[in-house]
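User: My collaborator and I are trying to settle a disagreement about how two of our proteins should look. Neither of us wants to argue from intuition anymore, so we agreed to look at predicted structures for both before our next call. Could you fold the first one, then the second, and keep them clearly separated?

Assistant: That sounds like a sensible way to settle it. I'll keep them separate. The first protein:
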Amino acid sequence: MDALAVAMVRGAYEYQGQKCSAASRAYIPDSLWPAVRDRVVGMIEDIRMGDVADFRNFMGAVIDRRAFTRLKQHLDAAKTDPGVKVLAGGSADDSVGFFVQPTLLQVEDPAYRLMCEEIFGPVLAVHVYPAAKWRETLTLVDRTSPYALTGAVFARDRRAIAEADRALRYSAGNYYVNDKPTGAVVGQQPFGGSRASGTNDKAGSILNLERWVSPRSIKETLNPPKNYRYPYMGAE
C-alpha cells in the first residue's frame, strides 16, 4: 500500500499532472481503500508548491491561464456533484502564477467525466470497487476511456498480475507492474500509446522508425537462368 500510494502521488502530481502519461484515474478495492486513502492524503498535505527553481518544491504552476481556467472549472464542478468527494486539494489560485492544488477525488460513478477524460492537471479521480469484483473491474477499466497511453497495476499475487495483463492488453501502450505509469526515458524504454492516444509506434525503438519509412525488398541474382525450361522438364 505504501508503494501504491507513492505511485499515485508521483504519477498524478509530478509536473503538475501536465505529462501525457500522468495518472488521471485509479481503481482501488474497498478492502484497501481506507489505508491507501490516508497515505495519499497525508502525502498531498506535505507537498510544497512554488517556484520550480527551489528544488524543495514538488510542484509549480500550470502552464498558462487557459489551462488554469479549465482545471478550475473541473474542480468547481466536482465540488457541486453529490457523487464526488474532494478528499484533498480542490482549490486554485492565480494571484501569483497559475497554481492548482494537487487534488484527490473519490467518485461513485465509474463513468464520471474525470474517469473518462484526460485533463492534463494535478487531479486524480478514484473509483472504489468491491474487492470481490476484481474481474468485472478489469473489464470496466478496459472499456471506460478511449485513451490508451499508459497504465499500471499493483499486486503481490502473480496470478492477478497475469490476469490484469491479459484483460488490459489493449488498454495501455505502455504498461507498468508495481510502478507509476510515468517516467519512460526515450532510448531506454520505448514509449507510445494506442486507441485515441496514438498508433502505438514506440518512440525510442525500431518500431517507431518503421512508422516513417517505406520498406523495399531487393533481390539480386548473380547467375540468372538462360533457358525458360526447368530441369524437371527434361526427358525421362
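The second protein, kept apart from the first:
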Amino acid sequence: MTALPDSFLRLPIAHRGYHDAQSGIIENSRAAFSAAIKAGYAIELDVQLSADGHAMVFHDYEMSRLTEQSGATRTRTRDELIQIGLKGCDELIPTLPEILTLIAGRVPVLIETKDQDGAMGPNVGPLEQSVANALTDYVGPVAVMSFNPHSVIALAKFAPDVARGLVTCHFGAEHWPLLNEATRSHLRTISDYERAGACFISHRFDDLSNPRIADLRAAGASIICWTIRSQKDDTEARKVADNVTFEGYAAVAAS
C-alpha cells in the first residue's frame, strides 16, 4: 500500500478545479485547474473513457449537461471529444495527459475514475489502464480513487505505486437508483477497503457520523470528505475529516 502524500491532507481540494460558472470558469476545465493552482489548492478531477480507450477529463457519463452534444461520453473517440466545447466558456473537453502537463506537479491532483456500467461491477480495465499510462512519467503528488471498488483494485494492478482510495457514502436508494439493494448495502459497509489496498476514503459530508468512518480512521485510514460548500460546513467536517473537497467558497488550509 502506497501512503497518501501529506500534501493531500494540508491543502484544501478544489472539487473539479476551482470553478465558478458565473465567471466563465467551468468545472473540469483548464481555467478551473489554473485557478486552483494560482490559489494554492489541491485539485480533484474526474475521468471518463472515450470510445477508443483514452481517459478524458469530464465528470458526466452523458454529455448534455456540460456540452451542446448528447449521448454517452464513451461513444465518442478521443479525437471527437477534444473538438466538443464546454458550455459557458471557449474551452474544449481535455484529455488527462493534457491536464497533467498543465498541473505539472505544482499542486496535488486527485483523480476519480468514474464507473462505466452503472452497476459498480467488474467491467473495468481500459479506463484504469489509460490513467496508469498517463501517470507513468508524472512527477508530483497524485492519488486515484473511485466509487467502484473494482476500479480501485484495477488501479492497484496498473499503477501499484500510486496512492489509492475509495469514494464512499451512505448509498441511499434516492441517490443511486440504478444500484440494487444488495450492491448498495455492500458498498455502504466499505468492506473492500483492505482488499483494494486503499489508504484513504473520500466520504460524503452528511454521513461522517457513520461508525465505520471512525473505525477506519482508528485503523490508520486518512479521511477526506465531499463536497463542502460553505465555511460553516468546512469547520464542522474537520471535526471528523482530515481534509475537505470543496466548491463555491474560498477554503482555508487547516492550521
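Some points you might bring to the call about the second protein. The chain has one domain: 7-246. The chain has nine helices and nine strands.
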